Amino acid sequence: MSLSLITRKFTVEEYEKMATEGIIKPDEKVELIRGEIIKMSPMGTRYASSVDRLIQLFYQKLGQKIILRVQNPIRLNNNSQPEPDLSLLIPRSDFYVAAHPCPQDIYLIIEVSDSTLDYDRYTKISLYAEANIKEVWIINLKEECLEVYRYPLQSSYQAIQKYYRGEGIFIESFPEIELTLIEILGNIY
C-alpha cells in the first residue's frame, strides 16, 4: 500500500501576506514556484561576479531601453512568483511600483546557473514557457556556455541553442544590438 500525501499550495496573495506578516523573514531567500515556497541556493563568487558582469553589460548596451530587475520578483500567474537573476523589462515611468511585472512586461529572463542548472533547465524553463516568456537565457557556468530558449509553446521552447566563446548573440527584442559571449561569460575559471 502506498501513501499519497496531499500538499497545500499557496497563491501569490497568500505568499505576499506571509512576507508582510513576518512569517517569511525579509532576509530569507525564497520564491513561489507552482504554489510551493522554494528555498533559493546560496550565492557563490562565480555566480555573483557573473550577475555583476551582466548588470554592467546590459546597462552599457541597452541603457534606457529597459528596466533591469535584479533578483526581484516577477509574477507569472496566481501561484508562481519567481525571482530570476535578471529580468529585462519594458520601461515604465512608475518602475512597476503598483505590481510586480507580468509576462507581457518582460523582454528577457536570465538565470545564472551552477549548482542550480538542472532545476533551472527543467523546472524554471517549463514554468517560463507556460507563462509565455518569449526568451530565456541560462548562463551555464558548468559548461561555460549560454543556453538560449525562444518561442514558447505550452511547457517548452521550440528553439533551444547553446553559444560558446567566440560567438555572438542578440536579444530577440533588440536584434540591432549584438553581444559577444566573451562579454556575457567573461573569464570563467
From TrEMBL:
Record InterPro entries: Nuclease_put_TT1808, Restrct_endonuc-II-like, Uma2
Pfam entry (one): Uma2
GO MF annotation list: endonuclease activity
All residue ranges annotated as the Putative restriction endonuclease domain in the record: 12-181
Keywords assigned by UniProt, alphabetized: Endonuclease, Hydrolase, Nuclease
This protein's record includes keyword Kinase: no
SUPFAM superfamilies documented for this protein: Restriction endonuclease-like
Official protein name in the record: Uma2 family endonuclease
